[in-house]
Amino acid sequence: MFSFLHNFEPQPIFLSLGLLNIRWYAVFIVLGVITGLYLTLYLAKRFQKDLESVWDLVFYLVLWGFIGARLYEVFLFWPYYQNNLLQVFQIWRGGLAIHGALIIGVIVLWWWTKRKRTSFWHWAAILSPGLALGQAIGRCGNWFNQELFGQPTNLPWGIPIAIEKRPLAYESFSFFHPTFLYESLGLLILATALFFLITKTKILSEKKSVSILAFYLIGASLLRFFLEFIKIDSAPLIFSWRWPQFFSFILVIIVLAGYLIYLYHHEKHSSLRPSWESK
Asked: Residue 147 domain-assigned?
């Protein structure tokens, strides 16, 4: 296994059909979407949700999620893209930021649940395991693009990076931390934990739904926060932190505070209910 990682030199093209090149990055993104979708369909069926609604919701989430992920990336690196406008549309080369997808995704989910007059929290919980699983699979595409890797390493699972892909001052190093694979494994563990949490009981209460969503957001954000310490790709800095790291930290604080406030009010209101109502 380590020998494979240490010696495998991936190529970005999965299949060439004349002038059309299908990239591994796109293949893994599509695989992530499909796998996440089927896990969401399974959970929706388990909790007696309308399966046609899943297809409707996922259509909006995938469409706007890609748009949000790309716009967020372009915004962060606008000094570069303003001089290379055509590359804004070249998403097959990479450059999809999960934080942008999450921001737009929350807005779209809120709009969709209001329109359908259904619970935002229930659907957020049902989507969370599939989202984590889809991210885990999609991250593998970064390997074939040779991007988002970490600092140089002599560890047996260090991966080779082509010299033209190495940042300045790192040309003399050959092997680097596969941070995208670390994140992929972490997200796979998170998806598994979320799946067992949500399927532990057959009842999907609001409290359980809020807890699952908070667990996903905090878990994924902490994973990203710590991995940013060893990444060496270019990223905007704020307070000497890489922007994705700073955003992840702020997201953890906001979600944790909101979750604790929710639990406080939930328990408070529960204690005020008449004894016959809680039976």
From this structure: yes
The total number of structural domains in the chain stands at 1
Predicted confidence (pLDDT) per residue in 135-193, tens digit: 999 999 999 989 889 999 999 999 999 998 898 889 889 899 999 999 999 999 999 99
Q: How far apart are CA 142 and CA 165, in angstroms?
A: 12
SS3 39: helix
Q: Is residue 23 part of a domain?
A: yes
Residue of 201, 213, 253, 246 lying closest to 228 (CA atoms): 246
Burial class (CB in 10 A: 0-12, 13-18, 19+), 158: buried
**CA 171 vs CA 61, 174, 230, 274: distances in Å:** 40, 8, 17, 70
- Domain presence at residue 224: no
Query: pLDDT of 114-141, one tens digit each?
Result: 999 999 999 999 999 999 999 999 999 9
Strand partners, 231: 150
Contact 123, 57 (CB under 8 A): yes
d(CA 254, CA 239): 18
Assign residue 94 a region (left: φ > 0; alpha: ψ between -120 and 50; beta: otherwise): left
Q: Give the dihedral of Cα atoms 112, 118, 120, 124; nearest 10 deg.
A: -90
Residues 6 or more apart whose CB falls under 8 angstroms from that of 45 comprise: 51
